[in-house]
Amino acid sequence: QSQLVESGGGLVQPGGSLRLSCAVSGLTLDNYAFGWFRQAPGKEREVVSCTSRADGSKNYADSVKGRFTASVDNANNTVFLQMNSLQSEDTGLYYCASRPLFCSTYGARYNYWGQGTQVTVSS
After folding, report:
1. Geometric angle at alpha carbon 114, from 78 and 41, rounded to 5°
2. Which of these, 103, 79, 95, 98, lies nearest to 22 by C-alpha position?
């Protein structure tokens, strides 16, 4: 059974950093693209980043480019999202999701989702 479990969220001050982890089981990481999504209260879910080993792509939303970095650790079956220079606008529930092979900006195209981890950026 495939499962994604996020961790690493928390409360951080503006300008701070967090690293989110997504522990993956039941999937071969090289055969899947992994996206990070977030949803703020009262707002629609949005894609933050996506990484695909199949075509080597690594994409980011404009709002996080230069601040967030996604990576995949095959040895430990874990996907990471390093978040630096956090802003209040980054507050939300962050989800890890996967779909076969290639990235997509559409959440509906992802087959597996984690339960989410809360990120709150506040002074």
Report:
1. 125
2. 79
